[in-house]
Amino acid sequence: MQSKSPSISFFRTLAALTLLGLAASAQAQVKTGFGFCYVQDLTSFKTYASPVFPVSWKLGEELPRAEALATEFLAVVTAVGGTGQKNCYPPNESKAVADSERAEVKRLGTSTFLQKWQDLAFTPRPWDPAQRSLSGNRTRYFFCAVGDPDLRKGAATSVFPVEVPAANPSAAFTLAELYTEEFTRDVLPGLRLSAVYPSCLSFESMAEAQHGRAVHKKVFDGFNLTFVDLSWRPTARLPDAASAAPVRRSSTRPVPASTAGKQGPGTVATPISADGLGATFGALTPSLSEALQLGQRKGVMVVDVTPGGAAAAAGLKPLDVILEFAGQKVSGPVELQTIVASTRAGYRAPLQVWRKQALLNISITLSASVQVPVPVAMPALTPSGPARPLPRGLIGAQVTKLTPALQQALSAASTDGVMVTNTVPGKAAEESGIRSGDVILQALDQPVRDLNDLATILGQVPDGQTVMLRILRGGRDLDLPVGPIRSDTPALPVGRTYAFAAKIVPPPVVKRFCHMHVQTTQDFFDKGVRSNVFELNADESEKTALRVMTAFIARANEAEPARWDSPARVYCEASHCSGISTQRHHMMTSFCSADRQQADDMLIASERGKSLPRIEFNPK
């Protein structure tokens, strides 16, 4: 599980339901299948869930049907004294799939966010597919929000009403998507926040919208946290066609919180589970077009290919550029999404592809089960829009992490490194000869494994200096001086260089008192082990938290060899850290405080909620 807070998980899951366009077919075919609903009360950490139930809907109107069911189920929850944010997965023709999705929601909610789970009986009201469409307008309520737990900072606009045509059930969702693109483009750079799940969300009522905003604000409004109230309003408007009639798009499913937004750094992914291609696509920047020698051609670049998917079967490869799909020219990911959505599953579509300065004609058979992440925003390492706020070390380059497919396409030795996708005119990267498609392997003789490594290394460079980067270009390693680096630090005197004037400053060591526990996600309430309160003198980084958790697992396994798995990754927010293993899904949590009494009190409170055997643990 990669989610960093209940609020972020909520927005990631809800954004998938809210930000996607609706599907609508001209014939309005009625389908039957299965669905389920749940309500998350993130203030009291409780989830109310319906069973999987049979449901009917019009083909292409899965999302509005799901929203109506969510409203019905919320009324049931309210009747038993509950409250929270409503959610319904769009219906699926397979009961097995619906059962699996419900089980995953329960596992993530109870094991990762420690939420209580309450099953509630629920049968949807009778539904008439012949019901006539409404006329006139209706009011929807929106707000836009973003949060970065790493920086302990969040922001949100106030709730604003918008009139949408009642005859088009897709209108609110289309607007939410347009607002999100505008919010990401125009607001995030000024906040100096990375694009961590920016979302503009649509609600049926003012009360629901205000509740959703309040939940988001609560996570980022407190001690050592920053929350920004925004007065921004979007200016995007519905296209004329969208105002008049529903747009034909694919049916969609919410993104599970464990995978949402994880297709790669700089990518906000919109999964499409019908009419799938099984690939990740990126927009072409001018410098990428130049690097690929496209000339005046327009298209979308293949970033990654899903093994076993339709794209892989057709022979598509990373760095291919799709110029035409089924005889229609493609100018960007959104246009490709629209064309694919209007094409039936199983259709063998001709593609015109640009590969290694040559045109290819191939065919692809669309799958109905493969998800297609389509990037809608790629933040840049530039002063106007950093992928991580960088007060120092700005070179004016947009980069993305190497995927295994990109590694193979670029002849890289491993997936360590970052690929340059764009450079800013007039900035250090462009003026020093960095090109789109270059892979940065080292900076200042230090390995660059990912974007964070690059940001950390360059962040130590004083203003005006030039640094040596080792890059991979055309299968060969090159050492390239890049500068001048721009930052908020003063320039060095003439004659001084970075080599002897600057040094990497380690994070400060802090004295804290901590305790932690590990537990299974099966038999959740009665299997686990807990530490005593121990003193920890170390920095507050996630890497240190991972090392301490790994040491605790080793200590726990002394009594029961191989009983517990170490987490692969740890996420920290304020005083809490959490991690989960990839094999048996063992979950670890820790709490640290500068106050010994507070740490003791938290341990006692944890014991009251869940009694676990203790072991002595004192990390070095």
From TrEMBL:
Q: Does the keyword Protease apply?
A: yes
Instruction: Write down the superkingdom of origin.
Output: Bacteria
Q: Where is the PDZ domain?
A: 267-357, 392-475
Give the UniProt keywords, A-Z. Answer: Hydrolase, Protease, Serine protease, Signal
- Residues spanning the signal sequence: 1-28
Q: Which residue stretches belong to region Disordered?
A: 241-269
Q: List, alphabetically, the InterPro entries matched.
A: PDZ, PDZ_sf
Pfam families for the chain:
PDZ_2 (PF13180)
Kindly give the PANTHER family that the UniProt entry links to this protein.
SERINE PROTEASE FAMILY S1C HTRA-RELATED, SERINE PROTEASE HTRA2, MITOCHONDRIAL
Q: Which family does it belong to?
A: Belongs to the peptidase S1C family.
| Designated name of the protein | PDZ/DHR/GLGF domain protein
